[in-house]
Amino acid sequence: MTTLASPPKLGLPATIIGLAVGIVLTGIGVVFGFLQGLSVQLIILSAIATLAAFVWGWRFVLGQFVEDAPTRTEGGIGEGRKVWLQFRPAIYGLIAIFALFLVFSLTIEGFFNVWNIISLLIILTIIVLTRTLGRHFQENRSAFIGIMVLCGLFSIGSMNIDGFASANNIKSMLLFAAFLGIASVGQTLVALLGGLDLSIPFIIGAANVGLLYLIGLGVPPWLATLIVLAIGALLGVINGLLSYRLQGQALIVTLGTGFAISGGVQIITSIGSAYGGNVFGTVPAWLSNLAAMNGTTFGLPVPPVIVIWAVIVIVLIAGMRLTVYGRYLYALGVNRTSARRVMISELTYWVMVYAISGFFAALTGSLLLGWSGGGFIGVGDQYLFLTLAAVVVGGTSLLGGQGGYGLTVIGVLVLQVLSSFLIGIGLDFEWQQFIFGLLILPMVALYARSPHIRTQI
Amino acid sequence: MSDSTAGLLAENAPPSRGGRANPFLLVPITLFFLLLGLAVLRSPSLMSSAGIGSAIIVATPLILATYALMASVISGRGTVDLSIGPLIGFINVTLIQLHGAGILTNPIVIFAYAILTGALYQFLFSLIVIYVRVQPIIVSLSGYLALSGMNLVILPRPGGVAPQFMADWGLGTSIFSPVFAILVLASIAWLLFTRTASYTHLRLMGSDERAAYTSGVPIYVVRIGAHLISGAFAGLAAIAFTALISSGDPSQGTTYTLIAVTALVLGGASLAGGRGGVFGSFLGASNLYLITFVLATFNFGAVQSFVTNLAYGSILVISLLLTLIIPFIQRHIHNFSPVLYFVVLGLVAMGVILHATNDRDPRARPAPVEEIAVVQPLGPIASEQLYVGPLEVAVPDRADGELRSQAGALVLSALLLIVIAVFARVAFSQSDRRTIAPAVVVVVTALVLFGAYLMRAEGPLASGEPDGAGTVEESR
């Protein structure tokens, strides 16, 4: 969000009107707050936030029209017509949402209440802001829109659901987001090179079972964890080597190795065991503490997994931006031929990202063992499409070269907040999945549209 | 068949060599006959009327799902339709529910419903891809999640009853079942489509969309057309699936996504677009069916499903790695013909099948073996038997010996026919003077057939199998 266009200047009347409207809105918010019986600190905080956000938005929204004003006199197209041409899809979307809201209000009893209206306003604000402001952010447009969607979802959720914004719920959302986020590290890096890694869920399951099996054999837990992580990285190397010449089919190669890995690990663990693939054992306390909901980090009531994820996020984002390795990765993703001209080894990086992917998948599997306390081969199954969805929703292109782990973090958070919102309003699993599927498309369509074919020639 | 799947190579190979075949079919064909031979040796009952019939019933939904995937994959932009499995499930559950409500009863209406629903979904899909312009894989991911959720809403747990006329199809007692007819008709429909200009446009668009656009191909119309075909195949796959399980199942259809993508890639199609065909898709899907079939005949006790997973994954990876040697083969053999290769391996496999099915009990052969169950998992086997076992199913006795000596001449003539086919192929492709080649082929063929006739006249072996010769003659 660093590449803002020069802030537009507003006339004095516009500024005054903006301030006045903002203050009125804030006043309405304060009145509602007192009517709800919220604490005073909360009301003051939200009032300040409302005012600041509104004034900030007002400047930019009006700035559009101020900048556009000169062109109108030259072009001869009316202002309304121009807006219509520029924002046609967004206006269609607005009309559709209005119609949907109207239909819901008329058909569902009790749907027409103040919280739903505010939710509607938030959604409309998001759409308007993304269409108008989004074009100011050339590099990080998807990050901006992702954060907007995240804020909107979170505010809608905290208004409609009791305890959505409570510390406990936020902690649990972050916990699950951390698992998904760590599992998506590999998928993001691989996608940056234009590949796909579908073996992640299988490695997660294999690490989950394998770690417990090793612990059950009497290997010291720390050593067992290291062994599992090393094997995960090794499997990633194998994945990379096998799929290097078959990059177009990386999807199927990794799927095949995934099947083989999960089958092989289960065979190993069930040799000499009467339980046919079920592994039993006790998880060491420190591993449980790492990933459990009530875990503590140096005395703080935060599960260490979240801290680990935060460290990974910082290291990866900084590494991708600042180090040679990160820059070379982008170079390879954008254009293999030119990268080869500057002596970047494609094989090294291809194998490296798959190794990292395997390592983090194994790490996720180990952490999930600490969370669940029992080995289960299918523990990673949901991550097959979730990691893909997180990468895609974040805005990393599956064709390579565009995106980054920071975007995936936003994608992970959006998915997590969305799913706990859907759980919170009491939807069953199947409805959750249905709405999930329907929402991914418009979210991606907000920023990841490819240009028209005639502009690519 | 080679016309449909060939053609892409025409750009690579020099035209004078006549190489217009698809070398990517090499691996699936080899794998197909390898697995077929192994399957027949392990479980000869596969080659009975009931065995083939039930194999067709089980494999057809997968094959049709692969066709559906193929039609959209060819159109390029990485259109790997992950939602194909949930779509099949969706048509299945809505069909069952609507039939249960007494709305869909007529077979024609049911077929029309399934095909139109599939086509409608794919039509929406293509409109989103064209006008919203997001990556197709995102649309399909979205559709995957939405439809698999929807299926569970429509039918929370497996149940319901398929229409009565359809329930009988799933028994699979004979080869020529309605499901087989659907499969054949679908394949023929695609082969007819490959004769049209739209197919050329489709392949051009899949290989290079910009080139297609600049050369005036109506890419929107072509893309919508490809998706409509894909949807129609998905509808047929859903009907075959409904016939297979004779009820509704909200989650079973979803599993077809990964299997169909795998089958498509195994069949030599390119996920990037522009390459693919029904022959390869058929082989890929059949291979996957045969892999599971062969693995089911082994008994590994408690670790059965794990070994299945391991072998399944390994075969996938290995067969993909084998496609890497195709460029080396191509360097030496410029005129690889998949049909000829298929016929040659087919004859070998035919020999294996005859060996496996006849040697076991020659006297039982006149009576049709209808009552044998489909798959009979054999008992646990010792480890040395595991390596030797597949190669020899029965110790031949005297009657077998006689049968073999009788069949010797037949095998010889089959081999001669192979030689003729190979010779004809080489003569046509390698000769610069095309006008001479037919004459040479006719003369040599006549000579060889005359020799075969002389040998045939010596021994009274007329009661052989006509299949071996028939295959060659049909193919030429």
Describe the structure.
The complex is a heterodimer of chains A (457) and B (476). By secondary structure, chain A is mostly helical. Chain A has helices at residues 12-36, 40-75, 79-86, 88-107, 114-133, 141-160, 167-192, 200-217, 221-244, 250-270, 285-291, 304-322, 324-334, 336-341, 346-372, 383-394, 405-424, 429-445. Chain A has two domains: 1-74, no CATH class; 168-448, ABC transporter involved in vitamin B12 uptake, BtuC, CATH 1.10.3470. In chain A, helix 9 runs antiparallel to helix 10. With 476 residues, chain B is mainly alpha-helical. Chain B has two domains: 24-334, ABC transporter involved in vitamin B12 uptake, BtuC, CATH 1.10.3470; 343-360 and 396-475, no CATH class. At the A-B interface, helix 10, helix 16 and helix 18 of A face helix 6, helix 10, helix 12 and helix 14 of B.
How many DSSP E strands of chain B?
0
The biggest beta sheet of chain A, please? none
- H/E order of the elements of chain A? HHHHHHHHHHHHHHHHHH
The shape of chain A is globular
**Main beta-sheet annotation of chain B:** none
- What's the CATH topology label of the largest domain in chain B? ABC transporter involved in vitamin B12 uptake, BtuC
Topology readout:
The complex is a heterodimer of chains A (457) and B (476).
Chain A (H helix, E strand, L loop, with lengths): L11 H25 L3 H36 L3 H8 L1 H20 L6 H20 L7 H20 L6 H26 L7 H18 L3 H24 L5 H21 L14 H7 L12 H19 L1 H11 L1 H6 L4 H27 L10 H12 L10 H20 L4 H17 L12
Chain B lengths: L1 H4 L20 H17 L6 H25 L10 H17 L6 H26 L3 H19 L9 H4 L10 H16 L3 H11 L1 H6 L4 H27 L10 H11 L11 H20 L6 H19 L3 H7 L5 H23 L22 H6 L9 H33 L5 H23 L8 H9 L1
